[in-house]
Amino acid sequence: MIRAGEIAKGVHLLIKDDPYEVVEREFVNPGKGSAFVRLKMKNLKTGQVLKQTAKTQDTLEDIQVENKYVQFLYADDDFFHFMDTKSYEQFEVHKEGLTDKQVFLKEGEEYQLVIWESSPIDVIIPYKMVFEVTETQEALKGDTVTGGTKPVTLETGLVVRVPLFIKQGDKVLVNTETLEYVERVNT
Questions:
Q1: Phi/psi class of residue 19: alpha, beta or left (left: φ > 0; alpha: ψ in -120 to 50)?
Q2: 78 and 89 Cβ atoms separated by less than 8 Å
């Protein structure tokens, strides 16, 4: 059990027999009454978002999860397939609830798999990742009305805005939380 006042972003909780991850936490200390926290949590099985308010002294059931480094192999209609590179054990993670992470999965890349009760329930995407630009528009000289950026499509289908000098085939570093261009990567 964990007190609501001690809950931080990234903590895993058990609510109505489903695992949830806290994605946002706001501490509120009103002038009158006791302090409380507003929690925004994501169901790791279905992807649904739950908002809950709890007094700081209330207790919630936290769960212990294991993080395991795995390599992404491929995706089919229903599952993402991963492999532990040390034991060669393979894992299937149901796509339901993880569709927002599909644009970050690259074959052969290493990710962290969240395992609860011997079942994989989530994939942790790195904070920043390198992608190759597969589709872009040519920038016209003097075209700075849009702030000097243009949309590009990356190798996984993700679309981000980048500076005008980025060309097809370039590699770019992307912040996976904000979906923003960070820098061009020279390889």
A1: beta
A2: no
Enclosing domain of residue 149 = 128-185
Q: Answer with the one of 45, 60, 75 that is the final residue of a domain.
A: 60
Strand partners, 18: 15
pLDDT for residue 46 = 76
Beta carbons of 18 and 27 less than 8 angstroms apart: no
pLDDT tens per residue across span 94-141: 887 677 788 899 999 999 988 888 888 888 888 899 999 998 877 666
Q: Which two tokens stand for residue 165?
A: 């000098």
Assess whether 156 and 181 both reside in one domain: yes
Q: What is the mean pLDDT of each run of 10 residues along the chain (187 residues)?
A: 85 88 88 87 83 88 88 89 90 79 89 87 88 81 66 89 88 90 85
Q: How far is it, in rounded angstroms, from Cα 163 to Cα 144?
A: 10
Closest of 119, 93, 118, 88 to residue 105, by C-alpha: 93
CATH no. for residue 173? 2.40.50.140
CB atoms within 10 A of CB 129: 20
Are 76 and 112 found together in one domain? yes
Q: Tell me how many degrees the CA angle 180-45-21 measures, rounded to the nearest 5.
A: 60
The domain boundary, picked from 101, 124, 147, lies at 124
User: pTM of this prediction?
Assistant: 0.73
